[in-house]
Specification:
Layout (H helix, E strand, L loop, with lengths): L6 H8 L4 H14 L9 H4 L4 H14 L2 H13 L3 H10 L5 H7 L5 H13 L6
Amino acid sequence: MTDDASPENLRKFLESDDPAMVRMGLSMAKGAGVEVTVKDLEHFLKSEDVETIKMGFTFAEEAGVGDEAIELLCEALGKGNKAATRALGEIGDARAVEPLIKALGEEDGDVREAAAEALKKLGHEVE
């Protein structure tokens, strides 16, 4: 382990696939006054795995970039990412409602279905 809290070294922690290493990087960044961006957590947020996306969102919230993470997930939703669609429902953030409603008009039936399920989880009735 190193005591080097340079932004470059901290980014190595944040780029890890190991959640414990990422959490350590977040803690070190906070202690060193280094700003963490949503770009540092993209590899979690752009995953095709719902649990990985949810973990990335949790990290984003801890880093104070939750708004940007929701925006990134909503962009993925607009590109037909079913995992992002499902994750938005499970995250339970109201900021996702409008993009999920728009996704109900997607051509891909799986995306429409995932958006409907996500909206139900957010407390909205969908026919």
